[in-house]
Fold:
Amino acid sequence: MRTGPHRRRSAARRRPIIGAVAAVFVLLLVSAGCASNNGTRAGQRAAGTTAVDPDLSGSITVSAAASLTAAFGTIRDDFLAAHPDAQVTLNFGSSGALESQIETGAPADVAAFADEATMAKLAEQSLLDRPSEIFATNRLVMVAKPGNPKGIRSLADLARAGTVSLCAESAPCGRYAREILTAAGASIPESSITRGQDVRTTLGAVTEGDADAAIVYLTDARAAGSRVSTIEIPASQNLEARYPIAATGASRNPVLAQAFLAFVLGSEGQSVLRDAGFGAP
Amino acid sequence: MSPPRNPPLRTRPPVLVVGVAVVAVAFFALPLIGLMQRASWATLGHDLTTPEARAALRLSLVCSVSATALSVVFGLPLAWVLARVRFPGRPFVRALVLLPLVLPPVVGGVALLAAFSRRGIVGEHLYDWFGIQLTFTTAGAILAETFVALPFFVITVEAALRLMDRRYEDAAATLGAGRWTVFRRVTLPMIGPAVVAGAVLAWARALGEFGATITFAGNIIGKTQTLPLAVYQTLDTRPDVAIAMSVVLLTVSLIVIVSLRDRWLARP
Structure:
């Protein structure tokens, strides 16, 4: 009995907190609702252009290299417009990270990577449905702060450009950058290299942070628009990044996975990739 | 000794409650067991002496100790002001100080960028006038760690200052001690354990800092790549090294818990 009034009082005091928590949840729900509404609207917009195939249903997860973020977002929307009963979840990251996720049993029905070596690791462990196919190519460029204040013209200039953002070795863009720098005989002191986990964080160090330059894919530089100055790497020093795609052996929905794969390799997927700046396979 | 306020049950505890509690304990224990089981103990020493691991260990020590020192230097006066001085807006200031406790660290990093990057409201002038850049420097990593560690020190010490018996201070003052003497000879010894506990907590938090550091200070080997960043980066390429470094961090955390046992574990 003694605790009765006390308990009631503390419950009354707690009520505003419950209200605040409820308000936060409502806010989250509303914003989530808005996001999915946008998705549906984008889907409806694209629906006019493609034949709708209601036969495909179920859901798949597509693990795609970070450099494919924008392009695969569009491809997903177009694909869903054609297959309204299907669900496609995109999972972006560095190809290396995605590969170890799949290795440890993460659900992925389609894998789209930025280099063949990473895909080969999945193939070696018989984790693929069938051999991968190349669906796009990419090149590397240097990016600097807008206006290129450090006057970077060549790979050698990166050594005195201040802080240079490169991908970690676990990401294909990190290995590509190392190959390019080694071949050009340019060496950047390790103490001025900041490592991004994937190409988007690597680029973000220049666009959002204080890094002076980065080596990223042409497509990322293009997507960054006026937030960076792009400096081309001459063809003689550059390399061609080849992007393989495959359905995984563990896929629970191989039909939908193959349909998505065919869509990426087909004319609609390819035209989205071309628009984003990717080269033909 | 007064009887314990919360005597143990005399009846048998309900099976369901105990069962759920066991599940909760397993939830905490299993990841740690998994980590221990995956660690290759034979090569642990070798894994920890790889250049990256050594650089990360050294840097983590430097940054976390510096962040702790800064937390004590700035946190002690702050805690004293919050506990002893009445001023308008004090609840607001306290909320501000405690915010990093609940703020996602990566958001803290973004906020630090907005303030101290070369285009930040303060960082812009630091760079233009003095040529000082904090991002991508060890100083930046220390700044990020201090940002998240300071609140732990302040709440611990402020609580001690509020709870201590102020009559000892009054007595010292009536006996002619100056304010500084009272603080040094009476207050500080009385809140000493809390200062140590706050510093240990702040240090542990600084040591584990990830989000604010990688966002604000980047990920430069030997400069800003502290242990948690090194764990994250090597997990894909060299899992053994990542796990070895994780074991180090886990061991340190256990030592912290044990060293603070009087504060946490001894409670009934």
